[in-house]
Amino acid sequence: MEDVTRKRLAEVARQKAQIPFHGYIKDKESNIEPIIKHFPKWNIKEADRAWCAAFVYYCCIETGFQIPYSPNECISCSLAGCGGWEEYAIGDSRIEYHRRDGSFTPEIGDIVIYDKVFINQEHDHIGIILEIFDNTIIVAEGNTFNDNISGVIERPIDEHIRAYIRIPNGYCY
Length: 173
Prior knowledge:
alpha+beta; endopeptidase fold (from Nostoc punctiforme); 6 strands; about 25% helix
């Protein structure tokens, strides 16, 4: 499991984001089945326009991290939801969870949770960090800008960032 690293997660996430995956968009059927198949209680129609957290999970699984889709630490939802990722990270002491307002320095392959990006609510979006600059990060995301398409996006390091999650290299639930 030495190749199951955050660095590799970032590589996989970039590759998968650039496919691109998309939900139902003008004149195209959805192609998010590979992402959604990990969540047996969900279907493509239900996931449409709400699959950013499922995309992060998909990238983690494709990298080789061994994580159940609904770990015991998830109280409100599975890892198909941003809130589920937050509950999971807080509840599993092996995973680092850092609020934006701390002294934590994010790294490539960390997961970022956002507040008030799409629906003006807490933890409403999520992605995987690919690059870090002084005032911005480059992130692989599913359902970017609510366009229902995956992509690589530059986002400001600002008040919209809620927290960072760091999964240890070689992590196995």
